[in-house]
Specification:
The structure is a single chain. With 199 residues, this protein is α+β, with helices and mostly antiparallel strands. The chain folds into two domains: 73 residues, Arc Repressor Mutant, subunit A; 99 residues, Arc Repressor Mutant, subunit A (Orthogonal Bundle). Helix content is 41%, strand content 14%. A three-stranded antiparallel sheet has the order 1-3-2. The chain has a three-stranded antiparallel sheet with strand order 4-6-5. The N and C termini lie far apart (41 Å).
C-alpha cells in the first residue's frame, strides 16, 4: 500500500496535471485503485486543508476537484479574455428556471415563463457550457430535458445546486429589480427561503 504522504503527493500531482476537474473516482482510477474513490478521499481532505490559506485552493464543485486561485488574489492574475456575450433577459430567465427546476423540458420552461422559448435561447446556454441535455422525459413524445453542468457550478462558485440563493437572499443582496421580482419568484418556485431544485 502507498504510504499516506506519497498518496497525498500523487493526488496533488494528478490534480495539477489534469486538464479539467476530476471526480474522486477518476483520481482513484488514474492512481490504480480501480473503482474505489474512498481510497483517495482522505488525501483530498488533507490537501484541501493544506491549501485553505494559500494562494491557490483545492475546491470541490459538483463532485469534481480542482485548484483555483484564492478569491482575494484573483485580481492579480486577471488576463484579458474574450468576454462572454451578455445573456439576454430571456436566456437569464431560462438559466434560472433550469437551475431551480432541473431536469426540465422546454414545455415546462415555457409554462413557467408564460411565453415561448426560442431555440436560440437554449443554444446560447448550451454553447456556454452552463446547460446540458440530460436525456428525455419518459412521457408521450419523450421531450428532451435540460440540466445545469459542473461548468455552471464552477462559474458561479457553487459546490452544488443546494447553494443556490432563495428569493429573500437575492432581494437582501440588492440583486433584484422590482420589475423582475414576479418572474424570479415564478422561476424559483414561488418563494422565500433557499431555492431547492425539483427532481
Amino acid at each position: 500500500m502507498t504510504p499516506p504522504d506519497e498518496l497525498v503527493r500523487a493526488v496533488e500531482a494528478t490534480l495539477f496535471a489534469a486538464e479539467e476537474p476530476l471526480t474522486a473516482a477518476q483520481i482513484a482510477l488514474h492512481l490504480g485503485f480501480g473503482d474505489k474513490p474512498g481510497e483517495v478521499r482522505p488525501a483530498l481532505a488533507e490537501l484541501e486543508r493544506h491549501y485553505r490559506e494559500r494562494g491557490v485552493r483545492l475546491v470541490e464543485r459538483g463532485g469534481r476537484w480542482h485548484f483555483e486561485t484564492a478569491p482575494d488574489l484573483a485580481h492579480l492574475l486577471r488576463r484579458e479574455k474574450e468576454e462572454l456575450r451578455r445573456l439576454s433577459r430571456a436566456a437569464t430567465e431560462v438559466l434560472a428556471i433550469v437551475a431551480y427546476h432541473e431536469p426540465v423540458s422546454r414545455a415546462e420552461i415555457e409554462a413557467i415563463r408564460g411565453v415561448q422559448t426560442g431555440k436560440g435561447t437554449l443554444d446560447v446556454l448550451l454553447e456556454a457550457g452552463w446547460v446540458r441535455v440530460a436525456g428525455r422525459r419518459e412521457v408521450p413524445g419523450r421531450p428532451v430535458i435540460y440540466a445545469t453542468t459542473p461548468v455552471f457550478l464552477d462559474h458561479f462558485g457553487l459546490a452544488s445546486l443546494k447553494e443556490l440563493p432563495g428569493i429573500d437572499e437575492l432581494r437582501a443582496a440588492g440583486l433584484l429589480d422590482p420589475v423582475d421580482e414576479d418572474m424570479i419568484e415564478t422561476a424559483l418556485g414561488g418563494g422565500a427561503g433557499r431555492g431547492s431544485p425539483s427532481t
